[in-house]
Automatic annotation (TrEMBL):
NCBIfam families: tellur_TrgA (NF033773). This is Tellurium resistance protein. The chain crosses the membrane at residues 9-27, 42-59, 71-91, 129-147. InterPro entries: TrgA (IPR047784). Keywords: Membrane, Transmembrane, Transmembrane helix.
Length: 152
């Protein structure tokens, strides 16, 4: 990775902000899909940070080529956001259950983390949520490409 890839650019900033907004909105759409009484804690805030990182590291570094490729970059950024969110949130849930002594050992806890991630992933199969993620990813890619051309 060239040193210039680590420098802040308008495209990275725009992509990070856009994916952070999408992460917050998608988190709000996800909440009703969970059982009543679920303690979400810092759910939205963690997902916003993951959106910022995904926008900066995934989408922002893939702009400056063409608008067609920016669609792909935006969708890749959303996919990274979903994978990272599932991983972090399932890890958090597993740790919460581990502190309640629900597992016999560390291997059982790690296996449970993957089961929790699959459960969360199945809950993501909601039409409105999928549309928000797909359209948001495309808009993120296009806006970051526009920022790359406008301010570079």
């Amino acid at each position: 990775m060239p040193i210039t890839d680590r420098m802040p650019t308008a495209a990275k900033i725009v992509a990070a902000i856009c994916l952070a907004i999408i992460a917050w909105y998608a988190s709000e759409l996800f909440r009703p899909l969970m059982p009543d009484g679920t303690d979400f804690g810092w759910f939205n805030e963690v997902n916003v940070v993951l959106g910022l990182l995904s926008g900066w590291l995934v989408v922002g570094t893939r702009t400056g080529r063409s608008y067609f490729e920016s669609f792909s970059a935006g969708l890749t950024g959303v996919a990274a956001l979903v994978v990272w969110s599932l991983t972090v949130q399932s890890l958090n849930e597993m740790l919460k259950l581990a502190l309640q002594r629900r597992y016999e050992g560390p291997v059982e806890a790690i296996v449970a983390m993957f089961e929790i991630a699959v459960d969360f992933g199945l809950r993501l199969l909601n039409f409105e949520l999928i549309v928000v993620l797909l359209v948001g990813g495309i808009i993120t890619g296009v806006l970051s490409e526009w920022a790359s051309r406008r301010w570079s």
